[in-house]
Amino acid sequence: MAELQRPTLCCCRKVLTVPSKSCEGGRALGQCRLVDIASASNFHSFKLRHFHLDLHLNFALKRMTGWQVLELVPIQPGVQTLVLDTHPSLHIHSIDCKVPGTAGSPDIFLSLSYRVDPFTDYGSSLNITLPATVIRPHRAFQITIRYTTTDGPAIWWLDAELTCGQTRPLVFTQGHSVCNRSFFPCFDTPAVKSTYSASVRVPEGVTVLMSASRSAYSKQDRVFQFSMEFPVPAYLVALVAGDLQHADIGPRSRVWAEPCILTCAVSKLGGSVERWLAVAEGLFGPYVWGRYDIVFLPPSFPIVAMENPCLTFIISSILESREFLLIDVIHEIAHGWFGNAVTNATWEEMWLSEGLATYAQRRITTEAYGEAFTCLETVFRLDALHRQMRLLGDNNPVSKLQAKFEPGVNPSSLMNLFTYEKGFCFVSYLSKLCGDIKRFDSFLRAYIEKFKFSSVVAQDLLDFFLGFFPELKENCASQREGLEFERWLNDCGPPLFEPDLSAGGVLTGPVQRLCELWGNDTSDTQVITTFDLSTWSTFQTVLFLDRLLDRSPLPHEVMTQLSCYYSTLLDGMNAEVRIRWLQIVVRNSFYPDLPRVRSFLLKHTSRMYTVPLYEDLCGGVMKCFAVEVFYQTQARLHPNLRRTLQQILFQTTLPCTVSSAPDAPPVLAPPILAPPTTGPTPTDPPANGTISLRDVNVSA
What spans are recorded as compositionally biased (Pro residues) (predicted)? Predict the structure, then answer.
């Protein structure tokens, strides 16, 4: 997943049984009680074989109403309660159970009692009492939960004005990391994977897509049906519905988007996706998910991209920058192997997904675009890592790869550069240990084949690594002084090793030289003019601007010169470049370029571009200007973003009223502020009728 927000921390611990293996240091994983404190569920007591969703989407009321069927098998004796993760925004109507009959006797249907208990501020626990006829070890039973959900953390309803085309409303879900418990009751932990299917009823003219391997549409009934034939964790179940059209861009890929941006999206990706997939398969083995489609979402999408299997979600704002788009799509492709096929078993070890995916992404870009390009992008990201390190300090626990978090802290706040870049550096170190990058590619292929469709912990990866390279185990590679695997996982601070990036010198060298020129007491304008930023790549330009930003505040005369040289030129570049220049403007209180800040915020309404600028404006002497711009733009901001910006501007927490009753009004959005003067009952499942599913999301 491509992350946006600057995180704090979180995570997880509930009993988890994992396969028995020997561990370095005498620790046997099968004897360890791994836990996930972000889940209230008792997922260790049951095997989830499959679940089905049947939903009706009501855009007028901003509700999803329907039912869920879970097929479960008890795996622990004596368990009398099924506990699932849920959320206050999800209202349960009823729960019943189907127990298959034995010896020709009919199935038994039972109405079950339940209660919902508080858990944390990001969820609740749904406790379902199971009768003795159900809880027989290794005998399957079905639970049907009828419910209504509104706009909890996973569900984003967009009025037409907030979409790209501004003609029809749109809804999407975002499950990472513990948000999907507000979409459907579940074992909301990455340790549990299952197949799923879904039927979704929508108004005429609405197209529904899901992260599924097969789909179909019945025009007569206005029902979309989906099936995911490969096991996935709950957080990777995703849905989007709205005015969406598609264009094929390869033999197994198509782009989905609102009509007004579809042509642009296709032109930016062209035939590249199939090329990237082919490179990835050459490195890591077959792509197991069948389809790789992409849907571009409006600027309200809260992160940059999400690796939902078969259907990557990506923010349309990134279309401005071809290089950032390239990196983000390749990163999500890499998740097809690292994160989706093999998943971290707890959120405490998210680096197993993001660190490995970042390494895989850079192997793909090296093969496709050369080592210099990959090194440039890596330098840019590692610069950001060290910048965060300077802000947090060397002893901050967020810099651990294997962090331990307190109960109640939301894992959605886990995403940080250490997960990606420190994880990448550790994987790079493992590659260096084996001495041959091609041998390490072979190891990664074998790792995927070994653990495909399962969830793992770090010890699984490291044990398999040392087993694959027995000479390293014999030479105690895991215990090399100063680079011990244990230190990599559990020590705070920067990476213990960084890869050699000198191959990028042809691209990073000019950036460094220009930064040095601007750092001199007297700028050599004649030499500076020989550097033509219009010929630079986006990553070169943002690396240069980031390093200038690191030096802020700059002398006023330097800012005047910088503006004279670059402001007009940067106006014509993409948003990734412009936001960095505007942050320099704001942090240096350079008023002559303030109109550019206003123009940028009037145009861009995504979290990725607004929040950093508003934080900088309010952190300096320009808060009044920020408030003025906010009043001009707030009606075009998603309610969640509007609430965030109000908190930044006014340092207050606004109430967020969540409906839990079936006929209560939907969640209240934060009010649009004036400038200062000085449930319906769910329908029952259809009695009959099936639709043939295809291996691709289909149009209405």
Answer: 669-685
Query: What CATH architecture applies to the domain 343-490?
Result: Orthogonal Bundle (1.10)
Give the domain 36-242 fold: Immunoglobulin-like (2.60.40)
Provide the residue ranges of all domains of the chain, joining segments of one domain with +. Answer: 36-242, 343-490, 502-650
The end-to-end CA distance of the chain, in Å, is 29
Write the DSSP assignment of 479-524 as a string of letters.
G-TT--HHHHHH--SS-S-----GGGHHHHHHHHHHHHHHHSSS--
| Spatial CA neighbour of 175 closest among 411, 15, 383, 367 | 411
Out of 122, 235, 420, 429, pick the active-site residue: 420
Measured in whole angstroms, the distance separating CA 203 from the mean position of its chain's CA atoms is 29
Question: Is 354 known to sit in a ligand binding site?
Answer: yes
Is 557 annotated to bind a ligand? Reply is no
CA distance 478 to 480: 6
Tens digit of each residue's pLDDT (9 = 90 or more) over 10-56: 323 223 333 333 333 333 333 455 789 999 999 999 999 999 999 99
As a whole number of Å, the CA-based R_g of the chain is 26
Classify domain 502-650 by CATH architecture: Alpha Horseshoe (1.25)
pLDDT in tens, 49-61: 999 999 999 999 9
52 marked among binding-site residues: no
Q: Which residue type does 660 have?
A: S
Q: Is 106 exposed, middle or buried (0-12, 13-18, 19+ CB in 10 A)?
A: exposed
Residue 2's pLDDT is what?
A: 65
Decide if 332 is catalytic.
yes
Q: Catalytic site residue 420?
A: yes
Residues of the chain short of pLDDT 70, as ranges, are 2-33, 652-700
Q: Which of 258, 307, 332, 498 is flagged as catalytic?
A: 332
**Paired tokens of 601:** 């915020």
What does pTM read for this prediction? 0.91
Residue pair 300/636 in contact (Cβ under 8 Å)? The answer is: no
